[in-house]
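hey so u asked for the seq, here:
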Amino acid sequence: MKRGFTPTLTLASLRKVFQRKTMPKLVSGFTLIELIVSVGIFAVVMVIALGALLSISVAERKSETLKSVMNNLNFTLDSMSRFVRTGTDYHCGSPSSGDCASGAGYFSFTAAPGSFSACPASSLTCRVAYCLDGGVIKRQVINGTPDALCTSSNFLPITAPEVSITSLIFYLNGSRVGSADNTQPKVTITLAGSVQINSSASTTLNLQTSVTQRLYDQ
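ran it, structure tokens below
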């Protein structure tokens, strides 16, 4: 080719130019509609999953609260049953009353020697009283006659503040000593309460147990 000479473009030379692989390859992708549909489906799935997660979290908190309350109530009833079973001289309704077949909210008895540190280990006059006041089960331990009113400052709470006790009833039979009734003293304890799970949910509880005096009533 001579210097300064411009070659004439022919059809064959143009075809060679356009046939060269100089153009970038197109990469396939998603259209706008496909992206919108995908994002919508993802959002729906996430809302459903989040709702299920919140429901599981609420159920778990409720389960933990109920477990804590039930543990406390079971411990309270077991403690009451243990001391009542080993005690004597049962009274229902007041410190000096006897049987209460129709039920009463006050119960007292003489504790076994050494049951409570508030009384001397050899004391035979250590009296224990249980009653309900302000949604709380209270107990008094005294070396003598317990107070007749549950509002007395000598009564101390034995249930957790998370649970509100709405009913505590004692049913006593066979409180008279010896052959006066030919019946071994037996007391049935029933209680009802509620637990506030959150600001809008609560659960009711009902428990019952029966205790018979271990010492033979002669």
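The chain has a mean pLDDT of 82. Strands lie at 88-92, 100-104, 106-110, 126-133, 136-143, 156-157, 163-173, 186-196, 202-212.
lmk if thats what u needed
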